[in-house]
Amino acid sequence: MTPASSDETYSGPSGPGSDASTSPAPAPPPSSAPPDAAAARWARAADWDRHRAVITELYRDRGMRLDEVVHTMGREHGFHAK
């Protein structure tokens, strides 16, 4: 085996169990985009007006915490807002 030249870079260990495809991918950085950004968009003023009654019911009438309302609105109504 010959030593690596100074032009080569180290690419990690080689041998059994070192296949990069078996390594878990690193988690993506946090994003401010909606969970399914391809299918969702951030709420606009008209969206707030359309969903106001549901948001009020969940928060005030059913006593949900704000984070629960946000999750429910995103999951069940496709409403993504901050």
β-strand amount:
under 5%
Tell me the major beta sheet.
none
Give me the secondary-structure category: mainly alpha
Bin the helical content. Answer: 25-40%
**Count of discrete alpha- or pi-helical segments spanning 4 or more residues:** 2
Could you tell me how far the N terminus lies from the C terminus, measured between alpha carbons in angstroms? 58 Å
Number of strands: 0
Instruction: Give unreliable regions as ranges.
Output: 28-33
Radius of gyration: 24 Å
Oligomer: single chain
Order of helices and strands: HH
Q: Please, could you describe this protein's structure?
A:
This protein is mostly helical. It has a domain at 36-82. The protein has 2 helices and no strands. It has helices at residues 45-61, 66-77. The radius of gyration is 24 Å and the shape is globular.
Descriptors:
about 35% helix, about 80 residues
Outline:
With 82 residues, this protein is mainly α. The chain has 2 helices and no strands.
Outline the fold blueprint.
Layout: H1 45-61, H2 66-77
